[in-house]
UniProtKB/TrEMBL annotation:
Parts of the chain that traverse the membrane: 28-51, 90-110, 192-210, 231-257, 277-296, 303-324, 330-352, 364-388
Name used for this protein in its record: Cation:proton antiporter
Keyword Transferase belongs to the record: no
Cation/H+ exchanger transmembrane domain: residues covered: 19-388
PANTHER family membership: CNH1P, NA(+)/H(+) ANTIPORTER 1
Keyword annotations of the record: Antiport, Cell membrane, Ion transport, Membrane, Transmembrane, Transmembrane helix, Transport
Membrane topology term: Multi-pass membrane protein
Subcellular location: Cell membrane
Lineage: Bacteria, Bacillati, Actinomycetota, Actinomycetes, Micrococcales
Pfam families named in the record: Na_H_Exchanger (PF00999)
Signal peptide span: none
InterPro entries, alphabetized: Cation/H_exchanger_TM (IPR006153), Na+/solute_symporter_sf (IPR038770)
Keyword Membrane assigned: yes
């Protein structure tokens, strides 16, 4: 109860001061991580939260599940198809290249780690999170094509990264058991297959029921939001019961819900997104109060170098490669490459890998913690000055790509 009380106090304090803090460049992630570190250190790590506890796992999983579902449910596939130029490059070229470059960097810096563990590390850190640089995708000072590309990328790449994470996690665990091929193949089939089934069934059925109930005016005021939350929870629990990936189920359920209900506006999923945000705040508190304190004694120069490379070269070089032929100039490439922060998805993946006692789990968790911790503060603190500098450059060069006059895909900026 102590941890819950302290978390509620921190949430109240940040909510009340969110406006002034935001205007000074302090993001919610920065505030909750700092609060977690201070409270965890002050209590000597006795807040009653264990990193491998069921409660910590449920909070972190549900946070990502709700946000994945919301991202997918708000995605207008028709609009996305008409404006998939730059986002498509980042997702289809940049993301795989980031995964491969992260693998190469890990092999050089961690030669004692098995290839499977290095691949797992790269998979955990390949997805971006726009919440750590939310102003970038919300501020109209940032040109439309850039905002749209980063917004769509961050909204979709954590869902795309899930299969990579699951495959690498299963490979890493299978190395301890022998018969690697059949173990991995079976696990992948089960995780992805049942995840797809749970997502399609729960999302499709929920969306159809929502459409039918609305058409007959059966809903009482206020129950729309709880209905949508129940669909996301249903996909989560169904996938868990069947043995599938709850993350794949959530993402697929969101798309199926959008398609079958026709309700893709932000209001339909507002409560689900807010529930995800509250749980995300709890995840950042756990990250600061438990994960950071566990990782501190294990930080090495290799961990620090990998974290820096992950946020710079491993991210920026694939972005520049993916954008070849797009007409974007080098300041745009540098801006888009830098604002690929690592956030909630990486934290959840790292905690799950640690909880499942993967080989070299402490080294992997430490590297994820350092990378995400650096990203929280480096990207949060550079948003305002970098946006201002980029805007000045953009306006001084009229030959740059102009905003797309069409409607941008409706994705949430977390």
């Amino acid at each position: 109860m102590t941890a819950l009380l302290l978390g509620a106090v921190v949430l109240l304090a940040y909510s009340a001061l969110s406006g002034p803090l935001s205007r000074r460049g302090v993001t919610s992630a920065m505030a909750f991580v700092l609060a977690g570190v201070v409270l965890g250190a002050a209590s000597g790590g006795s807040l009653g939260i264990a990193l491998d506890s069921a409660a910590a796992e449920q909070i972190t999983e549900l946070a990502l599940v709700f946000l994945l579902f919301t991202d997918a449910a708000r995605l207008d596939l028709g609009v996305l198809r008409r404006s998939l130029g730059w986002p498509g490059r980042l997702l289809l070229i940049g993301l795989p290249l980031t995964l491969l470059l992260g693998l190469g960097a890990g092999m050089l810096l961690f030669p004692d780690l098995p290839l499977a563990s290095v691949f797992l590390l790269s998979a955990m850190l390949c997805a971006t999170d726009a919440a750590l640089g939310q102003r970038v995708v919300e501020d109209p000072a940032v040109p439309g094509p850039v905002r749209q590309a980063l917004n769509v990328e961050s909204g979709l790449n954590d869902g795309i990264a899930v299969p990579f994470f699951l495959v690498s996690l299963d490979i890493s665990l299978a190395t301890l058991e022998g018969n690697v091929g059949s173990a991995v193949a079976g696990a992948i089939t089960e995780q992805i297959g049942w995840g797809l089934v749970a997502g399609v069934v729960m999302g499709g059925a929920g969306g159809y029921l929502l459409r039918a109930a609305r058409a007959r005016d059966w809903f009482l005021s206020g129950w729309h939001q709880l209905f949508t939350l129940a669909v996301a929870l249903g996909a989560f629990s169904a996938a868990g019961t069947l043995g599938g990936s709850v993350f794949i189920a959530a993402f697929v359920a969101g798309m199926a819900f959008r398609w079958s209900s026709g309700a893709g506006n932000v209001e339909t999923t507002r409560f689900t997104a807010e529930a995800g945000s509250v749980l995300a705040a709890g995840t950042w508190m756990i990250f600061g109060s438990v994960a950071v304190l566990i990782a501190l004694p294990h930080i090495t120069w290799q961990v620090i170098v990998y974290a820096v490379l992950s946020l710079t070269v491993v991210r920026m070089l694939p972005v520049a490669t993916a954008m070849i032929g797009s007409g974007a100039r080098w300041p745009t490439l540098a801006f888009m490459g830098w604002f690929g922060p690592r956030g909630l998805a990486s934290v959840v993946f790292g905690l799950l890998a640690f909880e499942r006692e993967t080989p070299y789990a402490t080294t992997l968790l430490t590297t994820v913690v350092v990378t995400v911790g650096l990203s929280v503060f480096a990207h949060g603190l550079t948003v305002m000055p970098f946006v201002a500098a980029y805007q000045r450059w953009f306006e001084a060069h009229p030959g740059n790509p102009r905003p797309n006059p069409g409607r941008e895909p409706d994705l949430p900026a977390r």
